[in-house]
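Data availability (excerpt). The following record was deposited with the supplementary files.
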Amino acid sequence: MEKIKVMIVDDQTIIRDGLKSLLEAKADIDVIGLIENGEKACKFASSLKPDVILMDIRMPLLNGVEATKCIKKENPEIKIIILTTFDDDAYIIEAMRYGASGYLLKDIRSEKLYEAIKDSISDNIILPGNIALKIISNLSYEEKKHIDLSDFSKREIDIINLLVLGKSNTEIADTLYLTVGTVKNYLSQIYSKIDCLDRTNAILYFKKLGL
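Predicted structure:
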């Protein structure tokens, strides 16, 4: 069984060690790094190549938002889940614009944390239900051109609908009888049309359109 490689980034030792203990109880999780600030997170993300990073927001040297921006620019395939003590809406929204998969409160139960990590691997957005709509409604986009559904082909619309439902590339491919490579090509075209660089922001974009 291939394990999910997780890196934990938090300036508090007790939080890092606590999360490590919780996650290592799962047979398919491998905690490969405990990092104390955003600056080191940017450095070690490229060398350790985790599948998922649990990222604190407020840290010295480089906060979680800036670290997310740095890491996603160099390693867009890495999933980043923001961890915070409070509902820091402004920080969370900014981090998601830079490609974070979502956020969790630090007091989350271990099973929910495990599920969130698995969901992020499947390209799902991680947002607690009580504020998901608030986060989405507050997202603003600097659109370079007006986009409406008529700008997309029927096949692109099919893919967009499945994308918004949180389906992975493999699930989209199976549903539409396409190859995963073809789905990726369609997604690249869709991202280009809405001037969006990643899946998370594309989903949020289309949710804002009411899909």
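Summary of structural features: Confidence is low (pLDDT under 50) at residues 140-145.
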